[in-house]
Amino acid sequence: DIDLTMACSILQKQIDIIQGSSDNLIIPSEYQQLFDSSSQSLKQSLGECFICLTEEKQLACMPCGHLCACVPCGYALRSCPICRQKIQCFMRISS
């Protein structure tokens, strides 16, 4: 009897949290698929150099910190291609 009361209480709290709308439900398998596809596209976009679009990004502009260029393209940069702030130096980031 107490188990049924507890289960009903938990169910009511869940309904209150989602405000009765199934759009507010998070289904783990659907969420995982969405996360996997977005993280894959993020990995692809994070990996390529902003300048040549072929090599892997390895240089972060300082002081802004934007990771934006491969080493060969970094030699030609004087300002960050993302925020246009003057580059004082680079920090090499290895994956």
Characterise the protein shown here.
The structure is a single chain. With 95 residues, the chain is α+β, with helices and mostly antiparallel strands. It has a domain at 48-95: Herpes Virus-1. The chain is 43% helix and 12% strand. The chain has three helices and three strands. The chain has helices at 2-18, 28-47, 71-74; strands at 59-62, 67-69, 89-92. The chain has a three-stranded antiparallel beta sheet with strand order 2-1-3. Strand 1 (59-62) and strand 2 form a beta hairpin. It is rod-shaped. The model has no long low-confidence stretch (mean pLDDT 77).
Keywords:
3 helices, 95 residues, three-stranded antiparallel sheet, 12% strand, alpha+beta, Herpes Virus-1
CATH topology of the domain at 48-95: Herpes Virus-1
Q: What is the strand tally? A: 3
Any guess at the CATH architecture of the domain at 48-95? 2-Layer Sandwich
Largest sheet: 3 strands, antiparallel
Task: Report strand %.
Answer: 5-15%
Corresponding CATH superfamily of the domain at 48-95: Zinc/RING finger domain, C3HC4 (zinc finger)
Number of helices: 3
Measured between the Cα atoms of the first and last residue, the distance is 57 Å
